[in-house]
Amino acid sequence: MKENINALDEINKGASMGMDAIHFILDKVEDRDFREILNKQYNDYSDISEKIKDIYKKYNSTDEPHETGAVTKAMTWYGVEMKTLTDHSNSKIAELLMQGTNMGIIEGRRIYNKKEIDKEVSNIVKEYISMQEKCVEKLKEYL
Predict the structure, then answer these.
(1) C-alpha pair distances (Å), 82 with each of 17, 78, 108
(2) pTM for the predicted model, two decimal places
(3) pLDDT at 63
């Protein structure tokens, strides 16, 4: 049971971090097609988070899934601002988002490969990984 809760919490934190990063960077993106891709990715993260919230009570009846905290959000915002201060080209933004997305893929794979989680949780983790891998492929087009 604990492994399921930990998996859901970690994937939800990753989805929250992805939504935060996209939210912070979206106003720097001028290319309409690129904005659409990022909006879709934001919605995909949101969908994953909603799926987690839907089943979380099954594994933990007293708490809500963990999200990114205020300090992490502030650090994400600051990092985006500093790294795009002199270069907010599509290439730079795609690079930054790919770095974060790859970290999410790695964490998702670690969770998925443990095989100590229920099928329902495993399916959400697998969907999270797949969504991020597709996103990386789209972002590569903007490097």
Answers:
(1) 17, 6, 27
(2) 0.89
(3) 80
